[in-house]
Amino acid sequence: AKRKSMGDNAINRPLDRARVDDSGRELTTNQGVPVADNQNSLKAGLRGPTLMEDFILREKITHFDHERIPERVVHARGSAAHGYFESYEDLRAITRAAPFGAKGKRTPVFVRFSTVAGERGSADTVRDVRGFATKFYTDEGNWDLVGNNIPVFFIQDAMKFPDLIHAVKPEPHNGMPQAASAHDTFWDFASLSPETAHMLLWHMSDRAIPRSYRMMQGFGVHTFRLVNAKGESVFCKFHWMPLAGTHSLVWDEAARLAGADPDYHRRDLWEAIDSGQFPEYELGLQIFSEEQAAQFPFDILDPTKIVPEEMVAVRAVGKMVLDRNPDNFFTETEQVAFCAAHVVPGIDFTNDPLLQGRLHSYIDTQITRLGGANFHEIPINTSLAQIHNNQRDGLHRQQINRGRVSYEPNSLAGGCPFQAGARGFVSVPEQSQGREVRGKPELFADHYAQARLFWISQSNTEQRHIVNAFRFELTRVQTPAIRERVLALLLNVDRALATAVAEGLGMSLPAPLPPATDRPPYEYPPSAALSLFAR
Ligand code: HEM
């Protein structure tokens, strides 16, 4: 049954100011001048040259000439929806983040799902990681949870991100192939970076060909902190769990759909919302203390590791409902700007070296993608909380700040913006000492234990799909040495896996890759593989 969508949601206030209904109106120029003839340009005689004077033609063509903006450097292809998050409980004992301030509290959200590698017009059902980015318009500013549908990442340090993406994207000399992983450069990089082992297993699994954005999990990936009003903090991993369950396509369906209906996921999301079948996801938290973290056999700052559910249970704390399609793809889905650095009081970062690099990257790229320093004023990006500061000017400034003072301290503008003190965002005062070094903690070097944990968590059918995916991808790799290195990497994960992949390629098993550390890989008890967030 069609349910009522949230017409009165608070996010409509800033968006309403920008919404326009053109139907049945007289055509005008951008200066509001009524246009008499929209079919014919102004000429010197009916068969004469077009006149420079035709400001109506020139304005129309000039605007058209500038209609395209750069696509996102990654996650270019996406689909989005509006909705709300409702907290199941009052979590103020753990975090002062506004969305969790009371049982039943609702916060408007905008969510964009995406593929990573494909270009803006690429197919939806390719084998790839999926982005799951949520903007919470909270009472205390925007919080962006910019996650993926896989709980770990390929690399451990932001320093390697441009290399990873250069290896994943089409090769620079001929722009091929479009597929995220089926080429030499991707497997070359992956096999030379054994930290990719865990994510490679997820990437070759059915998780990388989701059935629908409505049936896909989301993960914050990094360890974050939750902070309460007393300044006490705990570590936290964020998980979105679809109430429709987690479901995948099988490879033959995915490959066929990529040709027959490249908009498959976009259409599915749009039509579900349009018909009142609103996608729903629970937000789950894994909360743990510094003392617990110190006991884990992995480093919680390492984004290639999960915290197994048997070590820390996932606690469902609220539900997100997506109940409204955007009015306009470009102004909302395309112009939305998520940023890993957008947190609100009650949420803080950790020293995860991948996260730290992300804190810089998003706003930086958006200055190019969306033009200048004022893209936070684009309606979809504006916070519901009012903005008061001394930032001024820049390309396309919208806000009209009054008065002569745009600095502080000052004595001239009684009542200018003042610091919020403890009411504002206060970073957790973490103790930090050390010599400047480039390097990694030793625990980061255990690349295989959790890859193996994922492998043994899979059913026989799912394992067969993983083997088939490795075989398919690697048969596209032209360079034998790269295929051999991937097999050597897989041998460190599981001999049966490596053997099955090698058989498919008609290759014999090479020697395993030398481990990155003398420490033996941690042996997880088989029970740790039972759930792994598979709902
Ligand atoms: C998009 C950088 C790792 C999730 C982007 C964009 C950049 C970027 C530049 C394009 C943003 C835009 O144009 O608006 C990086 C860097 C990373 C990194 C430098 C590592 C150092 C990750 C990780 C995740 C992630 C680990 C998941 C936890 C996303 C998502 C989007 C995105 C979901 C698309 C947001 C949207 O829908 O607009 N990233 N990223 N990224 N990234 Fe990352």
Throw out a few tags for this protein.
globular, 10-stranded antiparallel beta sheet, 535 residues, single chain, 27% helix, 10 strands, binds protoporphyrin IX containing FE
Provide structural commentary.
Residues 1-41 are annotated as: Disordered. It is an enzyme of class 1 (oxidoreductase). Residues 26-41 have a biased composition (Polar residues). Residues 28-416 form the Catalase core domain. There is one protein chain. By secondary structure, the chain is an alpha+beta fold. It has 14 helices and ten strands. Strands 1, 2, 3, 4, 5, 6, 7, 8, 9 and 10 form a ten-stranded antiparallel sheet that branches. Strand 6 (224-227) and strand 7 (233-242) form a beta hairpin. Helix 4 (184-192) packs across helix 13 and helix 12 crosses helix 14. The two termini are 25 Å apart. The relative contact order is 0.14. Residues 72-75, 78, 112, 114, 131, 133, 146-148, 153, 158, 161, 221, 336-338, 354, 357-358, 361-362, 365-366, 369 line the site of protoporphyrin IX containing FE.
